[in-house]
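A protein record pairs a chain with a discrete description of its three-dimensional fold. The following entry can be read in just this way.
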Amino acid sequence: MLKLIAILVLSSNLSVAVETSDGWKEKAFPNTPTGAAELIGYAERTVGEAEDGVRIVIGCENEDDNSDHILDELAKNNIKYGLVFASDVLAAKRKHSTPPASALSVAMADLEKFGFIYRPKVAK
């Protein structure tokens, strides 16, 4: 199964939710160049075996929050990613009652919008 790494950009923090074989692992890092580099290292170590690959998705709750640090770090490491709109993140947060500042809202938004592409439903 393709695993998901979701990053929530906040004004002062970068929150990440990493899908593992044991469920979701979450951690927050400062929204700084160093914090972005630490987040990438954490995600790489935490994701474990990803036989079918990894999808990285970034979202925010407020479009004005600074995403430059994480986007620069991903570009520097030649890592591709997808984006979800703030409105989709906020809708997923309400629908799934995710905790405050949780990147799970980004993961749920991506699954709802694009999951049909990488998580096809199994016929019953």
Summary: The first strand starts at residue 3 and ends at 9. The longest helix spans residues 33-47. Helices lie at 33-47, 68-76, 86-96, 104-118.
